[in-house]
Amino acid sequence: MSTIIKICGIALIGLICVSVIRGTKNELSGFVSAATGLVILGASIALLYPVIKFIYEITEQTEFAVYIETILKALGIAVISESAADICRDCGENAIAAKVEFAAKASIMLLSLPIVESLLSFAFEVLK
């Protein structure tokens, strides 16, 4: 509970700094916003570490470890790329944000190829 309060405090301090800087030097406000976002992202990932560690410990004992690992990697790609795209949008670069999102989708598709291959081979085995 106290961690989320700290994160909200960081967000509010960042918001105030961006608002003050935007009034004087608008070009620097994007950098402050990006830095605030990165700090919050880092704190959020630190919050998820125990959950991810727990999931890895459980899945190591099953045959589904590859699938869970792929899902967690895809989730990580999605979170990081969404944060990067949001930072780009905050700086007014919508085209770059769209490219980051596209690259993330392509990365997730590439990451999921072994699972798709496994599912297709299983389906072909069942149909024979």
How does this model look, in words?
There is one protein chain. The chain is an all-alpha fold. Helix content is 91%, strand content 0%. The protein has 4 helices and no strands. The longest helix is centred in the N-terminal third of the chain and has 34 residues, at 26-59. The protein is elongated, with a radius of gyration of 20 Å. The relative contact order is 0.09. The model has no long low-confidence stretch (mean pLDDT 86).
Parts with pLDDT < 50 across at least 5 consecutive residues: none
Helix content: over 70%
**Series of H and E elements:** HHHH
Query: Could you report the average pLDDT, rounded to the nearest whole number?
Result: 86
Largest sheet: none
Strand content bin: under 5%
Q: What's the gyration radius in Å?
A: 20 Å
Briefly characterize the structure.
The protein has four helices and no strands. The protein has 128 residues and is mostly helical. The protein is elongated and about 70 Å long.
Question: Layout of SSEs?
Answer:
Layout: H1 2-24, H2 26-59, H3 65-90, H4 94-127
Helix pairs in contact: 1-2, 2-3, 3-4
Notable characteristics:
128 residues; single chain
